Structure formats: C-alpha cells, structure tokens
Amino acid sequence: MVSTSSAEAASLRPGIKAPAQETLLTPRFYTTDFDAVAQMDLSGHEDEIESVLAELRADYNRYHFVRNAEFDQCWDSIDGETRQAFIDFLERSCTSEFSGFLLFKELSRKLKGRNPVLSEAFALLARDEARHAGFLNKAMADFGLSLDLGYLTKNRTYTFFPSEWVIYTVYLSEKIGYWRYILIYRHLEQHPEHRIYPLFKYFESWCQDENRHGDFFKVLLRSQPKLWNTLGGRLWARFFLLTVFVTHTLTVLERATFYESIGLDPDQFNKDVIRNTNETARRAFPCILNTDHPTFFLRLNTCAIANQHLAEIASTQRPAVIKLIQKLPWMAVIIWQMLCLYLIPSVNAEQSRETVR
Ligand SMILES: [Fe+2]
Ligand SMILES: [Fe+2]
C-alpha cells in the first residue's frame, strides 16, 4: 500500500534512477481490450469527436515545451528533504505521463486501419504525453538523475483494464491532472517567492493539454450509454471517483514536504483538487460524490493516517510475516473508511449537466 520511493535515489547506472518500488500508490501501466475499443459505436457523436480532434490537431503547445535559459543553473540550493521530495514529485509525474503515452501509443497502433478516427486521436494524445514525460525527465536530469524510460517500458508490469474502466479512469486522471497543474500554477503566480524551480511556469498551457485529453474521454464516455444510464454505470462511476480521490489524498499527504516546499498547505491543496475534479466530473459522469458531506474529508484523512502507519511498518527490518500482521488493522481501517465513503449517497449529475462548467 505504501511507497518507499522517498528512500535514497538508488541508481541503476550513474545518473539513471532506479524506478521507485512498485506499490498500489505508484502510477501504473495499463493495457486494455483493443478490439472492444476498435468496435466502439460512436454514431451520433461524430460532431463532438470531430471538434475535440480539431482541438488536438491544432497542437497549441507545439512550441511550449522548450527549456529556457532559466533552467541553466545549479540546483544544489534545493537540498535535503526538499530535494528528495522534489525528485519524488518529478518521478511520479514523469511515470504517470509516460504511462499515458504508452497506453495511447498502443491504442493508436492497434486501431490503425480499424478505427482511423480514434487511432488519430490516440496518436495526438500520445504526442502530448511524450512531450510531458520528456520535459519532466529533463527536469530530473537537472537534479543529476533521469528515468530510463526504455527500461521502464520493458520491466514494469502492465495492469489489464477493460475498455470501460479505461474510459472512467483516464477521464478522471486527465481532469485531476488539469486541476493539480492549474492550482499549483495559480498559487505560484500569487506567491512567486515559492517558485523554486522554473518548471512550474509551464503548467498553465500544459494543463490545457490535460483538459483537452479529458474532454476527448468525456466524448467517449457519453457516446456509450451503458457507462452512464445504467445502475452498473453509476456504481462504477462512484467507485472510480472514490479510488482516485483516496489515492490522491494518500499520495499528497505522504509527500507533504513537497507541497510545503512550494508554500502550499497539502491538506487544503488535496481538498481543492478533489472538490474541483468532482465538480468537473459532473459533465461526464452520471453521478458525483458528495464532498460536502461532513465526514467526507475526515474519512479520507483517516485513510491517509492509516497509510502513514503502513509506511512506517514497511520501513522496519522486521520479518515479513510480522509486518503483515501489524499492517492488517491499518488495512482494515482503509477498507472500512472506503466502504463508508462509498455508501454516502451520491449526487445525481444527469439533472444538472447543462448548468455547470
Ligand atoms: Fe500529460
Ligand atoms: Fe494527458
């Protein structure tokens, strides 16, 4: 359940960082049922698909990801715990951008000749994610490390997700990515004294890529009625909203040092990201979560505290079986809290879709 990536930055070769140990919280690599995606019936939604495709083709950020002279300096001033937290943030972001690239690239390749419209769209998404991952990897190089993305491609395990799950989760990860980047950008715009590294200046246009990616997945989601007008669709929508928000809370609070180093209150940042992402999901999902429920964030924070106990247990030298026994009660806490959160009545989004952003 916990990541040990805050441990020392172990190297495979000098300057190449060994990937953080894979855990439930590290960004995953996905594969899916390519035939199901190729056969998706998009009839009746051609206009929406064409308009998101036009946005992707426009390639607004073609010249955006170019490193300026501000990067050309020594970054040893970012040191100690802040440096480690920073490298962690860069690695996690780079891995999830790269994970998106691999999935989109493979979708584009497998759909070529079978579904040219979707194949082109996925190729354009892969183009953006490759830029994002590459830009982050160059930032890691400023700290004397980089990820061997070829090694990662071959050696990470791929998790199979049915195409429906891919649509829900990628939609949410694009939109949560949008909100994370834009909220960090706006905060640093108001507090430039905390902008300790120039990467953050790129987040404003960058997050628009993620927004467009999310909009593309919104069209896919709305084109498949079973994803939103069935009981199963509503239950899955709630489940994925919840798992994305729990994962976000755990990772943000586990890496509080990073957010504090740029002057953000991690707890407030987490709440802002979740509230905004949940509201945005109103446009695509059949229902959203009730983040105003009095126990909503309390329960999320209880999960984060249990996760910190799990991290402490994992970092000890005790035998594996002892660690497992010690972990069980904390795992039970997380499962119980998630169950309680899942049972909070959701908010019907179908009624209000037209009136929200
Ligand atoms: Fe991205
Ligand atoms: Fe994206």
UniProtKB/TrEMBL annotation:
Pfam families: Rubrerythrin. Residues 88-220 form the Rubrerythrin diiron-binding domain. It comes from the Bacteria. It is an enzyme of class 1 (oxidoreductase). It catalyses: Mg-protoporphyrin IX 13-monomethyl ester + 3 NADPH + 3 O2 + 2 H(+) = 3,8-divinyl protochlorophyllide a + 3 NADP(+) + 5 H2O. Its cofactor is Fe cation. Its EC number is 1.14.13.81. This is Magnesium-protoporphyrin IX monomethyl ester [oxidative] cyclase. It comes from Parathermosynechococcus lividus PCC 6715. The gene is acsF.
